[in-house]
Structure formats: structure tokens, C-alpha cells
Amino acid sequence: MTRRILQIGATGHTGALTAAALVAAGERPVLVGRDADALTAAAQKLAPDRPLETLVLDVTDVGALRRTIGGDDVVLSTVGRFPDRGRPVVEAAAEAGASYLDSSWEPGYIRWVFDKLGRRAQVRGARLMPGFGYDYVPGQLAGAWALESAAEVGIPFRLEVGYFCDGVCRASGARGLAAVTETALEPGFTFRGRVCEDRPAARTAEFEIGGHTRVGLSTGSAEHLTLPELAPSLSELDVYQGWFGWATEIVSKLSVLGPVIAGVPGSRALAGRISTLLAGGPDSEGPSAEAMAQGRSLVAARVTDTGGTVLAALDLEGPGPYPLTAQSLAWAAAVEAHTGPKTVHRRVGALGPVQAFGLDALRDAATQAGLEAQVVTAAG
Predict the structure, then answer these.
(1) Spatial distance between the Cα atoms of 293 and 291, rounded to a whole number of angstroms
(2) What's the helix, strand, coil split of the chain in %, to 5?
(3) Beta strands of 120-261 (E only): which ranges?
(4) Which residues form the Saccharopine dehydrogenase NADP binding domain (predicted)?
């Protein structure tokens, strides 16, 4: 039996790319959104000979979501902003025992899914996989792969992961500044033997990748919630985003004001509205196909021991963030659609991609998506 793929937010920019990737892979997702005309047009464009099924649904209608989503469904959501519009969808999927994937990047939202819905998902038999795109699949793949290599030559103590891109990024310029401003107002976190509070953009780090030295800002991410279980000796884990080039150090220093601003009533909501407006609205068309084709994702991971010696380093380079997100979501949704929801030994709960599919399968999927890996083992 092939399970139904409900693609929520199918007419948005990322949603349209993901739907096209699913159809190219031979799947027939049900396109879900608020605008009936837009859904019909998308369904006919994607499959002219036999248009895809559509479903008009508003994600703010909790009752409709719960009546629609069943335990046999694969729910794929691209409805961001996820802290607002995403929560009702993932809650309904957890309650139903469905498989769930989304394109979120917001650290606070992803941590909320793991902390608040993880146990419920386990009880209900749901598989929740937030952040299944450029944020944060390649970083978790790179980190897990580097940890595997490092364990062959030493004892991993610290893992650092850096996200960068050339050309069109998920957020850059005004959009990127608004995104980091919004994130800086939310409680941040990192990993120091356990997941603990940490000010967003508190630190910077340099990575040599793609022929250049790149600087990233520290941020909370899915890696902190998923990778430590792979290496019991791991005591420190930091993730960095590198959207700003020369302005990175300035943004890091200004981030100290985040907690002060966050104490002002309404500041978080205002930052969210500004972020949405600068991104072109919740249903923004996004960059052109030509611009996306010129983009390039660059993700680095490095593992060191207690003395700071590099045990292993790994670089991933491949398609830009937008097509990489679409390919990642489409691959995972297709795998879920052809795997029974009650398969024995199938892990449930809030999961990272390695926990959900295994490192070997993830490596194969990355190769199919055009990600090229370079592994360096420095010790031994």
C-alpha cells in the first residue's frame, strides 16, 4: 500500500519546488492550501495528463486539520512561519500518529517539537522530522559522518558544524538580517554535555570550505537535539550559520542586545512581521529559477578531541538551499509513503534524519541530490 502524501503549503515557493520533485520521482501528492484556484492551477501544471488531487484547507483551522490527517498519512509542510502557522499542523500529525516532515529552520520551533511533542509522538506512533531541508539535513549528515570517521582514530570531544552558501541563500541581505533579528529575540541553546541555554550569535567560528575562509554565527539547531546520542563521549557541539560575510562580527556583537529587546512587550511578534514582510510575505515567490540554479550549498563539520586535535573533518557541497530543501523533503516523503506506518522496529517520536533513516541511506540520498562529500581524517 502506498500512503497518501498531504503536501501542505503546496502553492508557496518551496512547496511548488517540492511538489515538482515529488512528481518527478513518480509520486502523486495531494496538494493542500487555502486558495482553490491556485491549487487547481498547480495540480494541472505538475501533471497535465492526470491532474493531482487538491484539498482546500486553512492551517489555522485545528478541527479541519485533525479531521483530515490520519495515521496512514505522510504530512509534508512548507507553511512557515513555523512558530505560528506550523504548530497546528505538526500537533495534528503527532496526535494522529502520522509521518511528518517540514521545511522549518527556526531553532525555537524545532526544539519545541522535540521537547513538547516527542513523547506524544512516541505514544501515538508518529514520526516527526522538522527541519528536513538545507536546515538541517546536510549538517546532521556531515556531523554524523564526521563522528563516525573520528571514532576510528580517537575519542570525539567537540563537534562544530557550519552552514554557508554561494549565490542565492535561504536568507541573505535584508531577509537574512530580519531572520537573525527574529531568532536573536528567541531563547537560544547549544550543547555542553546536555542541551542548555545559550545566547544566539554568542560566538563566531571560521571554516575553510569552497576555497574560502568563511565565518559563521553560533545558533541553536536540530543537530544539538539529535547528534549527541551518536557519540557518548561528545561534550561540546556548536552550529554556525554564515549568511553575512564581513558583517558577521558586527551582528554577533549586536546580538547582546537581543535579551534586552526581547523583554519589551510585543517585540517578538513585531520581529516576526518584519521578517515576513522583508521575505515578500508568507507566500513569496522567492528567487528566480535562474538565480537558484547558480546557488551552491556548503556545509562543513569537524570533530576534535579534548586537546583540540582534529580527528575528522568533512565538507559537503551541492545544490543551492532551495532545490536542496525540495529534494530532501521529496526523498523522505517518498520513502515514508512506501513504508508501512506500523513496520516493526521502525523508530517513532521526534527524529533527526539519521535516527529516522540511518546514516547509509542518508548518504545515498545525498549523493542522489547532488551533494559531494570530502572526508579528511587528520589524526593517526
Answers:
(1) 5
(2) 45, 25, 35
(3) 127-129, 158-166, 189-192, 195-197, 204-209, 212-219, 236-241
(4) 5-105
Span 148-174, mean pLDDT? 84
Sign of CA dihedral 37, 49, 100, 63: positive
Tens digit of each residue's pLDDT (9 = 90 or more) over 163-221: 998 876 654 444 555 555 555 566 789 999 999 999 888 889 999 998 899 999 999 99
Class of domain 137-322+370-376: alpha beta
Q: Which fold has domain 5-134+323-364?
A: Rossmann fold (3.40.50)
The structural domains of the chain, with segments of one domain joined by +, span: 5-134+323-364, 137-322+370-376
* Positive/negative CA dihedral, 249, 255, 284, 91: positive
Q: Report DSSP letters for 133-144, one per residue.
A: BTTBHHHHHHHH
Q: Give the pLDDT score at 47.
A: 96
129: nearest Cα among 2, 226, 230, 260: 226
Alpha-carbon distances of 377 from 136, 147, 152, 258, 302, rounded to whole Å: 23, 11, 9, 38, 10
**Structure-block grid coordinates of residue 16:** 511548488
pTM over 0.70: yes
Pick the most confident of 176-180, 196-200, 316-320, 341-345: 316-320
Asked whether the beta carbons of 261 and 182 are under 8 A apart, the reply is no
Range of lowest pLDDT (18-22, 41-45, 249-253, 297-301): 249-253
Which of the 8 DSSP states describes residue 211? T
pLDDT tens-digit map of 252-285: 655 555 555 555 565 455 555 544 544 455 445 5
- Each as own residue / partner, the long-range contacts of residues 43-52 (CB below 8 Å, 24 or more positions apart, any chain) are 46/19, 46/20, 47/23, 52/19, 52/23, 52/28
Q: Residue 100 corresponds to which amino acid?
A: Y
Cβ contact 245:177 at 8 Å = no
| Spatial CB neighbours of 134, under 8 Å, sequence gap ≥ 6 | 105, 163, 165, 170, 297, 321, 322, 324, 325, 328
- Give the pLDDT of residue 346: 86
